[in-house]
Design goal:
Elements: E1 6-11, H1 22-41, E2 45-52, H2 57-66, H3 70-88, E3 94-97, H4 101-116, E4 121-130, E5 135-136, E6 142-145, E7 154-155, E8 172-176, E9 184-193, H5 199-208, H6 215-227, E10 232-233, E11 235-237, E12 252-254, H7 256-271, H8 275-280, E13 284-289, H9 295-309, E14 324-326, H10 341-347, H11 352-361, E15 369-371, H12 373-403, H13 415-436, H14 440-461, H15 463-466, H16 471-491, H17 497-507, H18 541-561, H19 574-578, E16 582-592, E17 600-605, E18 610-615, H20 623-626, E19 630-634, E20 640-642, E21 645-647, E22 650-651, E23 653-655, E24 661-663
Parallel strand pairs: 1-2, 1-13, 2-3, 14-15
Antiparallel strand pairs: 4-5, 4-9, 6-7, 6-8, 9-10, 11-12, 16-17, 16-19, 17-18, 19-22, 20-21, 23-24
């Protein structure tokens, strides 16, 4: 294998319209972090870049639905996801975002470079236009009747009832979701990247020169190339994104598929002034970690962009994973069928490594796999606790009980001792080989085999039975067990960073490097080790059953929602309705109510006065995301004391069939205190 001077590791930019879930972790971020941590331990020059993908139609749709700006949407989820990654131990060198000024500059310059070289095709096409709103409509801003199942609310790109992919022109009686009017066809100019021009080069580069790529990646690329490539638009009519930087392109932005991967470049520019050596020096090895839904973009489209530009290196490998299912069902953000990372971190404090371990041990490396709570419990209790934790604890306890924590001088080695010692460097090497070849599940298994070996060694030698009759033999056994423990703290570091940091503190290993792995004299005689403790703790059935029940309730809610929205309540008189004083208000300040999970304390301006309202919306809105929002409140509701706080009023919310709450806001901003009639 070619030796490289440095490494650039990129991780797929998560879309900033929702939080991170375990499918994202298993597919992209745990593998990326394992690989990066391994390279750092080896002392390689490596940087790991990621960030929020913040443009595109889904974000504008979410913003419109919530009555806020796209920037407010991406600000909210960028903050949530950045903190979740940090708390989970995903050690990016930078977590940037595509709404940053440096990204706009980088993406614009990249486009202009290709534009000035004549790499784009300019083409006029017909696209739906909303005369009332005065804008072209993206596919998701158009609804109509599906020509296949006759669902009257199919989108311009897909019917969610029958699952058929559509074009806006396929819809019967199309209408704009912005104004409700019937759109008309209008000519619009766009720029296209001629992927067909790069097809011969791609076939040679991928199919002949990268046969070592994972079979799922190679196979998907071959399928696309066999079907033939077509020019792909790099611009679209939208007001949210990087503006197309040429004359006559007003109201047009770079298509998100073109703009997002350039985010890796802009993040590197933001991180270091030496960014070009990571992107333009052939002595750099670039690795893209992605999920299978991004294979085509990172193996065919982005390399074609880089090839067209001419000065950038190309990815050396793209080790994409398949999808992770949840409890035998496809993860779905719209159905809330997911385990969200930020919620896991709240409900399982200090157990980041347990989830890292379960996701790696069951990683969907070549085919879709299934995550279950029972499997996580079994792996924790039967492997992390019973094997790894048990071995470490017994070793340190014996060392402290017999030798006051000082590493004993070993005596003569038995054949069994020699066999065990020879296994340490072998398992370190096999772990490294698996990581180098992106087989992280295998690497974790090999590293854990060292813990299994240690457990068996102690069980077979039984030093506690020999301490009085063969004290010299016990010294050898404890020395070897401590060497295994020290080696575990190195080779499991990429997989279980929090636990191995703790283990190195117990063994007194300060600075480590991967090259130390396999050394059977890491802890010299006389070296002081600490008493240690429990590296992992058992997870009880009650905790797991609570998580399963939570998911089952979600499933019941989804099944119930299939029958439609909640039934209309009994009729009320107009006089009853007119008693409610509903007004517009703006949130001035917001904070969580201490010792509660759902309550926010809001200071609001409702025109006539400044007041406080306590609302149970913390599951859906952060304090930061509430400040500056205009909302609707019932202003004449009798005050109520909640957690010692007087709450004067109630915020109006919409509740969907799944129980999710969404703020109700005016479509256009109006003066605070305006009445709703």
């Amino acid at each position: 294998m070619k030796r490289f001077k440095r490494y650039l590791v990129t991780s797929a930019l998560p879309y900033a319209n929702g939080p991170i879930h375990i499918g994202h972790l298993a597919g992209v971020y745990v593998p990326s972090d394992i690989y990066t941590r391994y390279l750092r331990l080896k002392g390689e020059d490596v940087i790991s870049v990621c960030g929020s993908d913040e443009h595109g139609v889904p974000i504008t749709l979410k913003a419109r639905k919530e009555g806020i700006t796209p920037q407010q949407v991406v600000d909210r989820y960028h903050a949530i996801n950045k903190k979740a990654f940090e708390d989970f131990g995903i050690a990016f060198d930078i977590y940037s975002r595509t709404s940053n000024k440096i990204h706009y500059e980088t993406a614009s310059d990249f486009f202009l470079n290709l534009y000035n070289k004549g790499e784009f095709i300019e083409k006029t096409s017909l696209q739906y236009y909303d005369n009332e709103a005065g804008c072209f409509l993206a596919d998701r801003y158009i609804t109509g009747e599906c020509p296949h199942c006759h669902n009257e609310n199919a989108y311009g790109d897909q019917c969610e009832k029958c699952g058929t992919s559509l074009s806006p022109s396929d819809l019967i009686n199309p209408r704009s979701t912005i104004s409700g009017s019937q759109p008309v066809m209008k000519e619009t100019l766009h720029w296209y990247l001629p992927l067909d021009k790069y097809e011969p080069w791609l076939k040679k580069w991928i199919l002949e020169e990268h046969t070592e790529w994972k079979t799922n990646v190679y196979g998907q690329c071959k399928s696309w190339l066999d079907q033939g490539l077509q020019p792909r638009a790099v611009s679209r009519d939208l007001d949210w994104g990087v503006p197309v930087p040429v004359k006559g392109a007003e109201g047009k932005v770079l298509y998100v598929w073109f703009d997002a991967p350039i985010g890796y470049i802009s993040a590197t520019r933001e991180l270091t002034p030496d960014w070009e050596k990571y992107w333009k020096d052939p002595e750099t090895r670039m690795i893209h970690f992605i999920g299978k839904d991004n294979i085509v973009f990172h193996c065919i489209i982005f390399p074609s962009m880089l090839k067209a530009e001419g000065s950038f290196i190309l990815p050396d490998n793209v080790p994409a994973n398949e999808f992770l299912n949840l409890e035998n069902d496809k993860i779905s953000t719209s159905r809330n069928w997911a385990v969200w990372l930020h919620e896991y971190l709240e409900e399982f404090p200090g157990k980041q490594d347990v989830l890292r371990y379960a996701l790696c041990a069951n990683a969907p490396e070549t085919k879709d796999n299934d995550f279950t709570w029972k499997d996580l419990q079994a792996r924790n209790n039967n492997e992390l606790v019973a094997i790894l934790g048990n071995f470490v604890n017994r070793t340190l306890v014996l060392a402290n009980n017999y030798y006051s924590g000082k590493v004993p001088e070993p005596g003569d080695l038995s054949p069994f001792d020699k066999e065990v010692l020879e296994s340490i460097p072998r398992l370190a090497e096999s772990t490294a080989a698996a990581i180098e070849n992106f087989r992280f599940r295998e690497g974790l298994k090999e590293a854990m085999n060292l813990a299994r070996l240690g457990n068996k060694y102690l069980a077979d030698t039984e030093p506690w039975k020999l301490i009085k009759t063969e004290p010299g033999r016990v010294k050898t056994i404890i020395n070897i067990s401590l060497q295994i423990t020290a080696n575990l703290s190195i080779i499991l570091e990429p997989f279980l960073p929090f636990s191995m940091k703790k283990l190195r503190e117990w063994t007194g290993l300060d600075k480590i490097k991967w090259q130390d792995a396999g050394n059977v004299s890491l802890l010299p005689p006389g070296h002081q080790v600490n008493k240690g403790g429990l590296l992992f703790e058992k997870i009880e059935d009650e905790i797991i059953n609570r998580q399963i029940e939570k998911l089952m309730n979600t499933r019941k809610e989804n099944e119930g929602s299939a029958a439609g929205a909640a039934a209309v309540k009994s009729a009320v008189t107009y006089e009853d309705f007119s008693k409610m004083d509903i007004r517009t208000a703006t949130v001035l300040e917001a904070e969580k109510v201490p010792k509660t999970a759902k309550l926010l304390k809001l200071k609001i301006d409702c025109g006539t006065d400044i007041r406080t309202i306590v609302s149970g919306i913390a599951e859906y809105y952060t304090p930061e995301s509430m400040v500056g929002r205009q909302i609707l409140i019932i202003a004449n509701l009798e005050p109520r004391t909640i957690k010692g706080i007087e709450s004067k009023g109630m915020i109006l919310m919409a509740e969907d069939p799944n129980g999710k709450l969404t703020l109700v806001s005016p479509v256009e901003k109006t003066g605070n205190g305006s009445t709703v009639k």
